[in-house]
Amino acid sequence: MSPEIIALIGLAAVFAIASIRNVHMGALALVASFVIGIGVVGESLDDVLGGFPVDALVILVGITYLFGLAHQTGTIDWLVNRSLGLIGNRVALLPWALWAIATLVACMGTSHAAFAVVPIAMALAHSHRINSTLMGLAMSSAIVGGALAPTSIVGITVQTVARQANLPYNAGLMFALSIGINVLVVTVAFFLFGGRELIERTREASKAASASTKPVVDDGAGGRPSAGVRGSVGTQTLTRVPTQLEAAPAKEPMTAMQGLVIASIFVLVGGFFTLTMLDVDVNLGVVALTIAVVIALIDPDVGRKAMTRIDWGTTLLLGGIITYVGVLTRLGAIDQLGELARSVSQPLLAALVICVIAALVSAFASTIGIIGALIPLAVPLLVPGGGLEATYFIYALAISASLVDCAPFGTTGATIVASTVEEHRPRVNRNLTIWGLSMVVIGPVVTLAVLVVPFL
Prior knowledge:
The protein is mostly helical and 456 residues long. It is built from 21 helices and two strands. The chain has helices at residues 3-21, 25-41, 45-49, 54-72, 75-84, 94-106, 118-127, 132-147, 153-164, 171-192, 195-212, 256-277, 284-298, 300-306, 312-331, 333-342, 347-364, 367-382, 393-403, 411-419, 425-451; strands at 216-217, 236-237. Helix 2 (25-41) packs parallel to helix 15 and helix 8 (132-147) crosses helix 21. It is globular. It starts with a helix and ends in a 5-residue tail after the last helix.
C-alpha cells in the first residue's frame, strides 16, 4: 500500500476514532502527524511541526482571551439584559432579538460563548408561549451564523486553511453570506413553528396597550367600562393592560470595567483595520492579545480568571488537523486527489458530494475539524481546469458544514435540548433531529445553487 493511501486512511481513522472513542481530535491528529510524517514518510520532527499554524494559534488565544474578559466582567450579561429591555410587549420580536444577541455573542472569539444565551432564550420561550423548536432553531442559527465571523474561531479556521491553500478568501463576505443564509433559516422556522400566531398576539397587545392609555369614565348610569378596565362611580380611572412579556430585568448601571471592555472591542476592530491599511504585518490576534493584556494590567484578578476561558482545546484541534493536512500535502496525497477530481465529468457533482460529506460528518463530529480537512481536499476542484474556478465553493462548503449543528448529536443541538423545559424536550429533540439531518442534503443543495451554479 502506498504512503499516500496510508495517510488518507489515517485521516479517516482520526475522525472515526475521535467520534467513537471520544478522544480529542486535535491531539489524535497531531499524534497521527508524527506517526505518518516520521514513521511512514520519513520526515524530520521539524518538518512535521513546521506545518503547525502558529499564526492561527495567536489569533485564537488573543481573541478568546479578550472576550473571556468580556464574560468575566459581566459585560455579556449586561448587554443581554439591556437588549431584552428594548423588546417591551412585542412578543413576535423576541426570537429575533435573542437571535441577534446570540449572534453578536457568537462573534466574540468562540461561538460557544453564545451557549450562555441559550438557557435564557429557552426559558423565555416557555414563559411566553413561544414554540420551543422555533427558539431552538433561532439559537442554533445564531451560533453557527456568528461562528463564521472573522473574529470567531470557525471563521478564523476557514480563513487560515483557505490562505494556506493559496485560495482567494474574503472574511467579510463569508460572514455576510453566513448571516444571510441563517436569516433565511430562521425566517422559514418562524413561519413553520408559530410565527403567525406570535404576530397576531403582538398586534393584539399593541392595540390593548394603546386602548389602556385612554381614560374610561363610569357615569354611574349603568355603563360598563371596557373589558379589562376598572372604573369607579364619578371617577376617571386609567388602567394599564398587562403586557404579553414579563417585566424587563432591572437595569443595572454599567461598571467602569464593562465600559472599558466595550470600548476595547471598538478599538480591536478599528486598530486592526488601521494597521492593515498601514501595511503593518500583524494579525487580529496580536491586536486582541495586546488589548487583553492592557486590561489585565488594570485588573490582574479579572485577567487571571479570564485565562481559563482561552479555548486551548480548539487551538489544539485546529493545530492538529492543519498539521496533518500539511503532511498529506507534502506527501502528494492532495495532488493525487486532484487528478481524481479532474477525472470527474461533472465537477458540480463532486462539489455536492464533498459538501454532503462535510455536513454529515459535522453533524456527528467537529465542524472545525471537518472544514480544516476538506477545504484542502477540495482545492483541486478550484484550480484552473478543476471545473469550479472563480466560484464561492469554499463559502458553500463552510456554510453546509455548519447548518447541521442544530442536530442534537453535537454540542450545539444537545445544549439546546438540555435547556428546554422537560415537558417539551422530547418534541424539540425529535424536531431538531429531523431538521438537522434534512440540512445534510438541503444545505449543500441550496448553498451550491445560490453560490456556485450562477458562476459556472
